[in-house]
Amino acid sequence: MTSSQTASTPLAADSSLAALAASTYQELRRIAQIHFSAERSDHTLQRTALINEAYLRLAQGESQRPTDHPSFLRLASRVMRNILVDHARTKAATKRGGDVEIVSLDRTIAHYGTQCLADLIPGESSETTRMLALELDFIALDQAIEKLARLSVRQSQVVDLKFFGQQSIEEIATTLNTSIATVKRDWAVARLFLLRELRAEPNP
Amino acid sequence: MSNDNIDVSQRWERIGEIIAAALDIADPVKRESLVRQECGDDTSTYREIVSLLAADRADGDLLSDAAMVSALRAGAAAVADAPTTRVQHSEWIGHRLGAYEIVREIATGGMGSVFAAKRVDTQYEAQVAIKIVRDDLSARAREGVESRFRAERQMLASLNHPNIARLIDGGVTERGLPYFVLEYVDGEPLDRYCETHQASIAERLAVFRDICSAVHFAHQRLIVHRDLKPSNILIDKSGRVKLLDFGIARLVHPPAAALNMQAPEATPTLFALTPAYASPEQIKNEPITTASDVYSLGVVLYRLLTGESPYRAKTTHPLDIARAIVETDPIRPSDVTRTGTSDDQRSTVGTSRSNRALRGDLDNIVLKAMHKDPSRRYASAEQLSEDIGRFLAHTPVIARPNTLAYRMQRFIQRNRWSATFASVAVVGLLAGIAATSHQAAIARDALARMESQRLRAERHFASVRSIAKDTIFAVNTDLRKIPGTLEVRSKTLDRAVQYLNELTLDGQSVSPALLAEAGAGWRELAHATGALEEAGLGQLKKSVEYSFKGIELLGRALRAEPTNAAFASQLVHALRIVGSDLGTGGDLDESKLWLQRAVDIGEVFSEATPRTQDARRQTALALTLHVFYVRGSSAEDIRRQVNYSNRARALLETLLAENIDQKMRSRVESALADVLGTLSERASLRPDGTIDEGVALEWSARAVEIATKAYSADPTNVTTANKLAMAHLNAAVDRVKFKRPAQAAVHANESFAHFKRLAELSGDPATRTLLLFATGVLVQAEADSISPVPVEAIRSKVQFAQSIAEQLPDDMKTSINVLRSVSVLHGMDAQLFAIEAQLPTNSSAARARLCRQSVEAYSLAASQRGRLDEFDGKAAVDRGLRDIVEKIAFCRALVPTFP
After folding, report:
1. What span, in angstroms and rounded, lies between the C-alpha atoms of B735 and B747?
2. Residue B231 backbone dihedrals phi, psi, to 5 degrees
3. Exposure check for chain A: N or C terminus, fewer CB within 10 A?
4. How many domains does chain B have?
């Protein structure tokens, strides 16, 4: 169920990339489960970007060696988004709960949701952000990012790297091989776009 | 990538550039104009950017609200384009539309032109008006008119009301322009009619009520006018009101929602409407209901009363007008007539008489009708009309100043009210949670428990209250009249403390009235314990503690009922007591803080609810105290002292000019005497810090005059006697300062005599402190005015005063007035010794002794002055000390052997 969604995205059109994406997906999911399992406390994760960990693991493995670091980061942050959206979809579809995977992915969602919102609405208190994160609709966010990608691929990559790659503006500039000023501007516009899309009434 | 895609990303790239530039500009107006400039004619890009910028604000930045701005822009463009697309009116004369032939043009307005026409297919000449809608409507809007008219014809035909011009027929001309056939009314537009007939306010209101009744009639049939304005309201030859164009706005401009779905570019036609009378929700393209008509009625009434528009837009551009409507509050009608400049325009309504009539109820009625929030307006045009009826009948109107609760809340938020309001907020929160909890059963149980707790508390309270209030305070007042009962009184007050403490008022089950009553009890207790006025035990620390308890409870009560004037008045009183007692005790910073709160709350109330007479009295007194405890000679300090003094006086003088009962009148008069006397010097400060003696003398003389009048009317009353003594004391102080010792002595003698009698009567430390003060002033005045100085007489007074000082409670001994008085007395003592030392009859040994005594007294005076450092300011104290040092040097010179 998961790889088909990943494969349908334009980034994964190339078959080797598709394979890489698939293994990245597995790896990230596994890492996320470990990180967000009930036994682990959240703060261990704060300075660790999951995608970096995934890169190291994949690079050590034999089968799907990532090509270069920047393009892997672009891919992996994108894949991370897919994981969260898949989870949000599954949850919406089944409304089941309790098993380890679900619980840990719930935490992942809460974690990333809080971060996304902190980036989107920097003025809010952390308490408000945490509350709002419970309401954040990952599916709508995903759709909004896809919509943004149709306007500017680079801006959607900035968003992915920021939200799901947990990279700073400077790191994003390096990853995308562009200037910090460009990333800042892209982020400013992308942020407004996402806010507007998320705040819009759902289309019937 | 297809060309389309390239275009899309290029456009997005451009949008990104403009947004980046816009984000660098903080001012929303400038930001919007930059975007407008960058976009040029590209309205879709403009709309896109504005909607993106708007996304950043959860509360919706109105300026960048996409719907509004884009609608306005396009609307403005439509207005600007209008002349090029307007119908040639002459073409229509003689033209036939259905059964009618157009005879002549009557008028041209924003929506189209109106012609007189006659029916050609009947025998009799029925005259009608035909309105042909402007042809700059979008094609889509035009297409719909005829079918919509057919659909709604039945409904519009049902609008059979004597004050509504009937809509007879409608259709679309062969050129596709919608037209409407209306009952012909031979009359004048409302505004012109009122002007030419010099209609009085009552007449205007009567006409307006007819308008309301017509609008209400239509509303009952679910027909909203949507474009009410004076030019749509005619008065015919017989003086009857006729409303035009009912339902037409809706036919021409179908609901915005439908437009948005089909064709967003049709939205601008909304602005063929008259923005000046449009409601905020019309401008924001939100759903329009009967409340929108109530709003427009409010604007019509506003204009009828003031002759002006309720908003001050920067220009007459529809964009600016619309902005003003959505973003700013209307100016109060009474303020318009007061501050308006176009006198000729308002010749019939802009008199001071109408200004007075507007103030208060009419203001509130207009502003309630025009509330930005539709749900806060009158529920119907009929209600609006009824409230005007109540105003005309002099019965209370239902329009209450809606800003008060809001402003109180804002005030409370602005000032960190420490634990008091924080705890209240928590209580409120808990109640809110209980009320909205889904666990209804639990909530019901909790409520039931709260209810029974409340009942218990109230029963208990009732019994305690009768002891605390009716017994203890009454007994205390009676005891005041009996000499030597100080100790007993102190005990009864301690008893009151016990009772008040027994009232547990911590739960949310306590009603605001109960909180306020207990708070008032503490307040009264503080008053009797402290030293604000003559009836105080001078136990400052205790009094401050009691005041704070009272303030907490009264604050909670007021928080629950933010518009309750009695609560507010009590709270201001309590704040005033604590401010005064803290100041008397020398804690000037704290004192100022609490007095400023008293002033703020009091003024919010006085402004918002003019009927809160006691709150205004309390406020004036709070202002006075505030000035009293603000020392300082910076320009800002001076400005504030003069300003506050004048505000205090103005509050009371307006009160006196009103119709108030005798009890309140005498209270206000005594307060006025207080204010004038206490502030005479401060009110007369010039910007450079010097005193305008004329102003000061006028204020203090007036104070004596008022106090004398009150005293003569009721000479046995302790309070009036006290106020008279105070007025004389203040007058004496001024005159000592202005080097008029003879006049000062007269006033000081009066004051001394009254205070002496009062002190013997009650023995209250507060009164004795004032007697002490009066004695100090008296001896100064006598020493300065009588020559040779009557050493013995003065000395006996000094000794009398010193014995008073020694017997004061500890709290009072270090109070400012006592320190100052004692310092003056020591100085006087020293002066007397120095005078004696100069007497030639004395032996040199006696001289040396007197000189030594003089120096000792001066040192005592100096030490007292040193303690006044904080209050009087360093410079004044230094001056006093220098003076004393000089006098010591003089003694040395007098006796060469002096150590």
Report:
1. 9
2. -75, -15
3. C
4. 4
Domain that holds residue B18: 3-64
Res B778: pLDDT: 92
Given an 8 Å threshold on Cβ–Cβ distance, is A196 in contact with B51?
yes
Query: Among B14-23, B164-173, B356-365, where is mean pLDDT lowest?
Result: B356-365
Q: Are residues B214 and B144 in the same domain?
A: yes
| pLDDT of residue B536 exceeding 60 | yes
Q: What is the Cα B603 distance to its own chain's centre? A: 6
Question: CA geometry: angle at A120 spanning A114 and A122, to 5°?
Answer: 85
> Mutate which of A148, A151, A180 to test chain B, going by most B C-beta atoms within 10 A?
A151
Determine the 3-state secondary structure of B119 from DSSP.
Answer: strand
Reported as a single tens digit per residue, the pLDDT across B479-522 is 665 555 666 667 767 777 776 776 655 555 567 887 888 888 88
- CATH for B187: 1.10.510.10
Q: Which tops the pLDDT comparison, B267 or B31?
A: B31
Say if residues B570 and B798 touch (Cβ distance below 8 Å): no
User: Phi first, then psi: what are they for B789, rounded to 5°?
Assistant: -60, 125
Residue predicted with more confidence, B839 or B267: B839
Residues of B with CB under 8 A from a CB of A: 5, 8-9, 12-13, 15-16, 19-20, 23, 51-56, 58
A contacts of B35 (beta carbons < 8 Å): none
Check: CB of residue B244 under 8 Å from CB of residue B182. yes
| CB-CB neighbours of B243 under 10 Å | 23
pLDDT at position B295, please? 93
Counting every residue written for chain A, the total comes to 204
Of A150, A155, A192, the CB nearest to B52: A192
Is the Cβ pair A192, B55 closer than 8 Å?
Answer: yes
pLDDT at A188 over 70: yes
Statement to judge: residues B345 and B417 lie in one domain: no
Do B564 and B449 share a domain, yes or no? yes
Q: For the residues B108-132, what does the mean pLDDT come to? A: 75
Chain-chain contact of A189 with B53 (C-beta, under 8 angstroms): no
pLDDT tens digits, residue range B352-393? 444 555 566 788 889 889 988 887 888 889 889 988 887 887
Which residues of chain B have a CB within 8 Å of the CB of A121? Answer: 58
Let me know if residue B641 belongs to a domain. no
Q: With an 8 Å Cβ cutoff, are B16 and A121 in contact? A: no
The answer to whether residue B699 scores a pLDDT higher than 70 is yes
B114's enclosing H/E stretch is: strand B112-119
Judged on CB neighbours under 10 Å (0-12, 13-18, 19+), B213 is middle
* B260, B119: one domain: yes
Confidence of residue B343 (pLDDT cuts 50, 70, 90): very low
Pair (B388, B409) in one structural domain: no
